[in-house]
Backbone:
């Protein structure tokens, strides 16, 4: 794998950061002529980057790996943390898994919201203490005096995707046209106000509003995490049709992001969510996510495979999550898979690890929350995390509309 994938950031130093120090949503590492830095070696060596069968042979390796919190001598974050047993997971209903996915994604989003622009573990622990974020740090007050933990544009847009899918038809073009309309309405009048949307999402919405066809609105080189952050609903709605889940997730990315790394990341997320909903084991889920990504971008597949390997071999989060900041789509999905592999049966530990990561922590925690929430169900989250979440009742009602 090229050396540039082992640096702290995938964005070159000479790229001007956008307002509020928000890394560009439409940038991915490129050669001087603007092309993705693929090579024949990347594709040829993909198999060698995937974990071996021996490395993927036991989920026990996942739970025994080095823990971010242990490194910080944390004792309280895991007061409500517990391992969801195989029996509990086997007894989950489809609706419980759907609720876990939708609320888990939003919980992760809200939990990672305050750390999104903190660029190092040291900065996070300096601001939030040696234990880091342990629960919701941001609250907003409503007119009636009650408060809630706000999520970001990740959940706002995922909500539109999910609502469109549950209301939609089997016609891809009609469904994407309706989704495009929802995105434009969101951009003009988002429920709860704007929550720092990425530039590629804004640009795509503006083009959609101008009448650009939905499958051409996204930038050809837009490879940020703005589409993968909202791709999980495809795996839930089309859990029993893997081909459709993947295809529609990839096509939906084109509304705002058309770079291969974004398409590959959406494919991986949709397939991963569908297989989790089918109660497949972690080893199988993540290997199929690599395969799905590879159908669109070998480099994205290799990045996910490396993350799996690092999770299995106990590479510290301080190493992996410093490298995978999550601003680019393939970084975000790889970081999420890394955390999912480490803590597939412990949603609290998984979400806190994601929320305390430097970079685009809310998006990484969104992806992680969807995955572990689906696998372990809504009841695996602390009650306060669910009740304090913004518009929690609305999200639960929407999740209940997903076909079972």
Residues:
């Amino acid at each position: 794998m090229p050396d540039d994938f082992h640096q702290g950031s995938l964005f070159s130093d000479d790229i001007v950061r956008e307002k509020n120090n928000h890394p560009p949503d439409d940038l991915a590492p490129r050669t001087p002529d603007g092309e993705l830095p693929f090579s024949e070696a990347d594709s040829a060596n993909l198999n060698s980057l995937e974990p071996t069968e021996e490395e993927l042979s036991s989920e026990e390796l996942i739970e025994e790996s080095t823990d971010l919190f242990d490194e910080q001598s944390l004792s309280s974050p895991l007061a409500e943390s517990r391992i969801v047993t195989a029996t509990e997971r086997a007894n989950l209903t489809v609706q419980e898994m759907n609720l876990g996915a939708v609320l888990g994604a939003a919980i992760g989003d809200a939990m990672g919201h305050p750390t999104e622009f903190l660029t190092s573990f040291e900065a996070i622990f300096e601001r939030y203490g040696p234990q880091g974020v342990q629960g919701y740090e941001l609250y907003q007050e409503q007119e009636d005096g009650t408060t809630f933990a706000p999520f970001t544009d990740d959940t706002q847009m995922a909500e539109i995707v999910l609502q469109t899918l549950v209301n939609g038809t089997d016609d891809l073009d009609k469904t994407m046209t309706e989704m495009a309309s929802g995105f434009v309405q969101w951009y003009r009048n988002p429920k709860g106000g704007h929550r720092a949307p990425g530039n590629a999402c804004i640009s795509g919405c503006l083009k959609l509003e101008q009448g650009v066809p939905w499958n051409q609105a996204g930038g050809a080189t837009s490879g940020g995490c703005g589409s993968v952050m909202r791709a999980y609903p495809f795996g839930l709605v089309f859990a029993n049709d893997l081909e459709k889940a993947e295809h529609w997730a990839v096509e939906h990315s084109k509304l705002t992001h058309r770079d291969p790394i974004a398409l590959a990341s959406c494919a991986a997320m949709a397939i991963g969510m569908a297989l989790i909903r089918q109660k497949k084991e972690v080893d199988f889920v993540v290997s199929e996510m690599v395969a799905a990504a590879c159908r669109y971008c070998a480099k994205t597949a290799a990045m996910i495979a490396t993350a799996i390997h690092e999770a299995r071999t106990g590479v510290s989060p301080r190493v992996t999550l410093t490298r995978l900041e999550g601003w680019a789509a393939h970084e975000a999905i790889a970081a999420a898979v890394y955390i999912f592999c480490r803590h597939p049966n412990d949603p609290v530990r998984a979400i806190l690890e994601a929320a305390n990561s430097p970079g685009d922590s809310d998006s990484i925690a969104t992806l992680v929350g969807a995955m572990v929430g689906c696998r372990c169900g809504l009841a695996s989250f602390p009650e306060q995390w669910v009740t304090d979440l913004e518009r929690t009742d609305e999200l639960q009602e929407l999740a209940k509309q997903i076909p079972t």
